[in-house]
Design brief:
By secondary structure, this protein is an alpha/beta fold. It is built from nine helices and ten strands. The chain has a six-stranded mixed β-sheet, with helices on both faces. A four-stranded antiparallel β-sheet has the order 2-1-4-5. A hairpin with a 5-residue loop joins strand 1 and strand 2. Helix 5 packs parallel to helix 6 and helix 8 packs across helix 9. The chain is globular and about 50 Å long. The C terminus is likely disordered.
Length: 252
Amino acid sequence: MLKVKQVDKKFIRITKNGKKEEFYADKNINIEAKPGEIIGILGPNGAGKTTLLRIIAGILEPTNGTVEFDGLNYKENEIEIKKNIAYLSGNTKIYNSLSPYELLKMCCEFYQVNENEIENRIKEVAKVLEMEKFLYNKIEKLSTGQTQRVNIARCLVHNPNYYIFDEATSGLDIISSQIILDFIKQEKQKGKTILYSTHYMEEAENICDKVVMINKGKIIKQATAEEIKKETKTTNLRDAFFSLIGSGTDEK
């Protein structure tokens, strides 16, 4: 189980007057995610979603609070935790001069996948994400959707129990998006825990067991999509979000 307990993240920024001021990108965040659950992290640009996911992935340290995976925290178990998670951001860069096969083999070696299992693991991942036709092509020659599938493949190749996806389908065509969403559903059935940040609230309604709505660094609602819609008397999560913030727009 993943537990995010009272997490804050404070930064310092320069104001228009040239003065330094402190601000919280995330404040008092509490989330629990069980095996076999897909948790949607929803909110506008600047809400604190990416900062939160980077903290959970161990890329940033929280100012306050803790993140635990199966009772283990980063301070004492960082290497063990990171071997068991996969993090994909919306702007992850990969080596364009390599083929997907070469990249996945390198990732297998990095994660110390048994040498006798590497070839079968790559074939299995390529099949799941429908990559067989371009497995040996240079990444620089691939489409945006194909490249994103390669990105997800590198997360999958070491068979982690936790996935942290930040805008995994952003900018993709409908076919590539559906392949990725189907993959996420399959991993859920295997008992994997998935955090899924997206701007597409229809996606969240389709695949998420629970939704965490964030605005201005704070959780404004945490429940199932149906519970949120019922409480706000709306028919979709987009309208529900605006109902909760009491405004038509909040993009800052």
